[in-house]
Amino acid sequence: MAQQRRMGGQPMFILSEDSQRTQGRDAQSSNIMAGKAVAESVRTTLGPRGMDKMLVDSGGDVVITNDGATILNEMDIEHPAAQMIVEVADSQEEEVGDGTTTAAVIAGNLLGEAEDLIEQDVHPTTIVEGYHQAAEIALDAIAEQVNEADVDDEILRQVAESSMTGKGTGGLTAESLAETVVEAVRHVNTDEGVKRDNVTVHTQIGASSNATELVPGIIVDEEPVHDAMPNAVEDASIAILDVELGVRTGDVDAEYAIDSIDQLNAAIDAEESELDNYAETVADSGADVVFTTEDVDDRVATALANEDILVFEGLGDSDARKVASATGATRVGVLEDLEADDFGAADRIAAETVGDDDLAFVEGGAAAETVTVFVRGGTEHVVDELERAIGDALDVVATALESGEVVPGAGATEIAIADKIREEAAGIEGRKQLAVTAFADALDVVPRTLAANTGWDPIDALVDLRAAHESEGRAGLVTDGDEVTIDDPFEHGVVDPADVKREAVESATEAATMIVRIDDVIAAE
Predict the structure, then answer these.
(1) Per UniProt, what is one GO molecular function of this protein (predicted)?
(2) 151 vs 154, 191, 216, 406, 437, CA distance in Å?
(3) What mean pLDDT comes out for the span 72-91?
(4) What is the percent of the chain with per-residue pLDDT over 70, rounded to a whole number?
């Protein structure tokens, strides 16, 4: 039914008849319920004992993961408020690379606490103000939890291992992968900071995950254009071309009449001369490895093979940019302009067959500024989940190395934050105190969920964690194999970058307060 307002005694229609409008408590309840449902969908994946989700799309493709951002992005979510929770996970992933499930779960529980307050007639604006004040207290509490020790390689390994524990890592342990992750990040650490984009992950099916290794350079899915070309070139001078090394053809359809054998021979000779010129120009340039985004004629390939020049054709634009960035080569669009100054360099370029695929390894020299984690696995599901786990670990290690700040994991930081918020709440007047306290209650979802996922009673675990925090100053739910204990996470190497906790609090607060403030939903059909 069309929405209308009266003006001068006459009805004025402002919305179409197909529009649907939900107002007041109904709108708030609907939005909060949607946000809570999305958060609940990933809650059981949290922690080292978290479970996986199997996601099947309409085409039958299957994704098996416990990565929060992946789960939420793969789900077919239409409700706009629920989409805001997905955006929380996306923001967390973009900024710090991990903690997506934590951020989503906190956002959902902030909404749940807000719903209870609204039922008690606490105004949404008061809730929003209280939540923002509580978030400021939370950030101060995180700062108080930062480990005073310098972030060295041992702590970085602990950060990487904590990030990957409980995720699908095939036959590898999180501890062994952590070594590779830290080595990769250290390799791209410069005076200007960590160049995270210089670490890539390349997946390959066809071997045990134990074959995963660090390659000092890059890998592209290409094979030589001719079997007689060398399989490897040492101290390579690399040219990257955006040129077709074949007979040029026009864009306009045309026919040429040949009246004699002499004209045919002349046409063939001209074509051969053009191809010979391509091969000669490349050979005379001094390049011994060529990557081109275009095609290479078989006759040119043969001539270049005779010169022991290794050539790869048909590169995608992204691969060409990757090779150029890694080797320092300049892409050339006109063959006659090719000069030695345009060349890139690498200690070694090798063409290898791995499983059923042909790969080009560009290693060392200028290429060594970029490193690749070469991920192996027996199935597509294994390598995909391993890639996600390693990607998150690379992000959090880079974050920890740049900030130099880590905090205890295993729910200890959330316990400390909630304790400080409750302490500060006592000095806040009015109903806003209820919202501040509710914020602390919402943060309890992290240790409670960790406890539930390990088989502990969530309430008993929360009581014991609070008591241990009061007496010891730091307490988390530490999982070591089959044993679960309440102890100082730092003593067990369970640590997270402080920025992961900060981002989770900030993004969850932002999303929750935005949803709580909505009291009118107008949807067009």
Answers:
(1) unfolded protein binding
(2) 8, 16, 24, 8, 33
(3) 75
(4) 84
pLDDT value of position 478: 85
**DSSP structure class, residue 4:** E
Query: What is the full DSSP assignment across 306-371?
Result: HTT-EEE----HHHHHHHHHHH---EESSGGG--GGG-EEEEEEEEEEETTEEEEEEESGGGGGSE
Q: What are 22-60's pLDDT values in tens digits?
A: 555 656 666 677 777 777 777 788 877 777 778 787 777
As annotated, the residues of the chain forming the CATH 1.10.560.10 domain(s) are 21-147+407-434+494-522
Cα(309)–Cα(303) distance, integer angstroms = 9
Determine the Cα–Cα distance for residues 302 and 309; give it in Å rounded to an integer.
10
Burial readout 443-458 (b: 16 or more C-beta within 10 A, e: otherwise)? bbbbbbbbbbbbebeb
374/165 Cα distance (integer angstroms): 20
Of the listed 100, 293, 454, 513, which one is catalytic? 100
Q: What is the pLDDT of residue 250?
A: 47
Name the one residue in this structure whose structure tokens are 């880079």: 398
Give Cα 80 distance to the centre of its chain. 23
Q: From 3.50.7.10, 3.40.50.2300, 3.90.79.10, 3.40.50.620, which CATH number describes the 217-363 domain? A: 3.50.7.10
pLDDT at 216 > cutoff 70:
yes
Is residue 392 part of the annotated active site? The answer reads: yes
Q: Name the DSSP class of 36.
A: H
Cα–Cα distance between 192 and 392 in angstroms, integer? 22
Kindly report, residue by residue over 419-473, the tens digit of the pLDDT: 999 998 888 888 889 999 999 999 998 899 888 888 888 898 899 999 998 888 8
CB of 151 closer than 8 Å to CB of 400? yes
> How many whole angstroms separate alpha carbon 32 and alpha carbon 36?
6
**Residue 101 bears catalytic tag:** yes
Task: Please tell me the predicted confidence (pLDDT) of residue 310.
Answer: 94
Q: Is 67 a catalytic residue?
A: yes
Strand spans (E) along 455-494: 476-480, 483-487
Question: What is the token pair recorded at 524?
Answer: 């067009």
Instruction: Provide the β-strand partners of residue 200.
Output: 372
- According to DSSP, the β-strands at 213-215 and 371-377 are antiparallel
Q: Which of 101, 212, 327, 449 is catalytic?
A: 101
Using alpha carbons, list the distances in angstroms from residue 92 to 69, 76, 86: 8, 20, 10
Query: What pLDDT does residue 418 have?
Result: 93
- Write the single-letter amino acid at 471: S
Identify the active-site residue in 52, 67, 395, 487.
67
Enumerate the CATH 3.50.7.10 domain ranges in the chain, comma separated: 217-363
In whole angstroms, give the CA distance from residue 419 to residue 414.
8
Among 52, 392, 395, 499, the one annotated catalytic: 392
Tokens 């992005």 found at? 73
Q: Are 287 and 309 in contact (CB under 8 A)?
A: yes
Thinking of the domain 21-147+407-434+494-522, which architecture would CATH place it in?
Orthogonal Bundle (1.10)
d(CA 129, CA 133): 6
